[in-house]
Amino acid sequence: MIVLTKDEQAAVKWLEKRSVRVAEPATLLTYRLSVRAGRRSPDAFVEIVVLNVVFWASLLGYVFLRLLPGVEGDDLPDGGYTFFVVAATSLTMWLHIRAGDRRAAAWLGDRRLHRPPPSWRSVLNGWYLTSLLVTFGGGATLAVTMAAGGSLWAVFWLGLIVFGAVVDAAILTGILHRPVLAEDEGSLAVDVVTRLQDVHLLMPSAFAVPVVADLVFVDLPGEPWLIGYVVLAVVTNVAGWFAQRRRLPALPADGHYGEVR
Questions:
Q1: Which residues, 6+ apart, have CB-to-CB distance to 256 below 8 Å?
Q2: Does residue 137 come out as left (phi exceeding 0), alpha (psi in the -120 to 50 range) or beta?
Q3: What is the pLDDT of residues 121-151, one digit of tens each?
Q4: What are phi and psi of 72, to 5 degrees?
Q5: Which ranges in the chain belong to alpha helices (H)?
Q6: Per-residue pLDDT tens digits for 51-99
């Protein structure tokens, strides 16, 4: 009887969702799939600690912005706190996934198949790209326009938009530039699927929705534009999520994924 570790069990469940059943997953896939099935990588411990320190320091610094001269209560976006929570959540998941992939790469060594990473067009669908452009490009345009009209709220909001853009850009860059981690055709197929699935870590509209808190409690200039901005960001993000799911290829039945039951 094969006794599986929790990481192996998580990898088995990931494969089962892709209609592949194994008694024991291959080591390479265990490293890569366990973190994508919710397991935490011990290799990410230091980075997660640093992230949490930065998160709490940033959150505290944001609170103290209210003490700046000329800043009134309504000038600081009420939804700004959500930006830090979304960023910390996305980066935590990404750091665990990246740590799992790094462990897989170290284990694979020179046995890795030398294949170039796919182009960004084959990884990122048009709806996701549109959502990124709407959330960060459209949001920045609105913020600059409002700031030019004298809105201090828009200045702080612009800073939050730039912050969110940096977070999603870091994750997207990691996805696109990650080397192909495969030792055979089965693990190569898994690499394609995981790269496409990792795009779901991008949550651009989550950086647009916090504006709703200010629309409810603060009288902001350009409210119709802001409402349309939030709706468009959410709609394109949801469309991108479903479009990305439809792009996931099936894993080949004849691929090697571990010990067969």
A1: 26, 184, 185, 186, 187
A2: alpha
A3: 999 999 999 999 999 999 999 999 999 988 8
A4: -100, 175
A5: 6-17, 27-34, 45-64, 80-108, 120-123, 126-132, 139-148, 152-177, 185-198, 211-217, 223-246
A6: 999 999 998 998 888 778 877 777 888 888 899 999 999 999 999 999 9
